[in-house]
Amino acid sequence: xxxxxxxxxxxxxxxxxxxxxxxxxxxxxxxxxxxxxxxxxxxxxxxxxxxxxxxxxxxxxxxxxxxxxxxxxxxxxxxxxxxxxxxxxxxxxxxxxxxxxxxxxxxxxxxxxxxxxxxxxxxxxxxxxxxxxxxxxxxxxxxxxxxxxxxxxxxxxxxxxxxxxxxxxxxxxxxxxxxxxxxxxxxxxxxxxxxxxxxxxxxxxxxxxxxxxxxxxxxxxxxxxxxxxxxxxxxxxxxxxxxxxxxxxxxxxxxxxxxxxxxxxxxxxxxxxxxxxxxxxxxxxxxxxxxxxxxxxxxxxxxxxxxxxxxxxxxxxxxxxxxxxxxxxxxxxxxxxxxxxxxxxxxxxxxxxxxxxxxxxxxxxxxxxxxxxxxxxxxxxxxxxxxxxxxxxxxxxxxxxxxxxxxxxxxxxxxxxxxxxxxxxxxxxxxxxxxxxxxxxxxxxxxx
Length: 448
Fold this sequence. Notes:
With 448 residues, the protein is an alpha+beta fold. It has two domains: 3-102; 161-206 and 221-242 and 267-448, no CATH class. It has 13 helices and 19 strands. The strands form four sheets. The chain has an eight-stranded mixed beta sheet with strand order 9-10-19-15-11-14-13-12. Strands 3, 4, 7, 8, 16, 17 and 18 form a seven-stranded mixed beta sheet that branches. It is flat.
């Protein structure tokens, strides 16, 4: 690949990322202008596949130079680094377009000043959505108060906020599945209380073989552990001008869900991986990690690379084989690799004994890349490769990690604190933690 071709590819990438998907923060922000999203998923996937083919060509050239001269030419290394960065950025663009296409339409919307609705909604759902729309746009509480009185609800009100319609709540949940890799991979339980307590059998019942007429001695009882998963409060506070709320052409529920879902997913994703359990869920990297040969319940086992802050000096892919077979077969068949983009960039260079790349690109838009036959989940909250860091995880996250949602997303309308904007204080309670310590293994970049 020539320098001109690489420059053309990176220029095309820059043009495609000129208007990235806006990521809201927890701070107050003003509602953006609503624009149509072009369908460019296919084009983004084609660009990504083209970049990967160029990466393989340049990496093969680099390996040939190392074999011939014992070092790679600096121009070749520079080309490979540029293409690697371009692949990372192109994958981000592809993920953003897939996310946009994954956003389902809500059941009701306003058009020409009239509330339209999907025929699949029940009359109660349509009534709830109409009352919610009136509350968000004009602050009219009577409709919601009447509905929640009918439902005998005692947990909502002017101070505590109102429950969003079920369709909006479902929409936020769906889109969190798309944005947050941990939520998508883990088990998710909805609860109505503040804490979920779950018993877990750490050892099965004892058994044995006996003769037909021999005595049957009493067997040992199985060991149970009680795991506790408290839910913590997650909040966002988007802001809108009154002019936006008065505009009947704007689907206000879609706007609210769009403001909330990504920022909730970012906060959740970080907590599910590295949260300390104080006012947030406890991430799996916050649990004690021990060498897998010394694994005990309550800890996560790790495989060391044999080199502090780096892959092994020879056959670095052996570490991947070791961590795969550290899992029991029942968990291994459902396992996924989890790492950030920078760690994945290192692994893209690995080959097997036959010269085949171990990392494979996604076969279609919305599908994950694969590594040694297992899917790869990109999580930017995973640490970078560094001395002592557990920068890669492999496991059956559905069996190993539990996300706990307390039912309902609440919203409180505040037209006073940030005039002339109306704030929407939105809260959700969520918790999480490891529920099966043998279902997740780590790769630690350390000598032992």
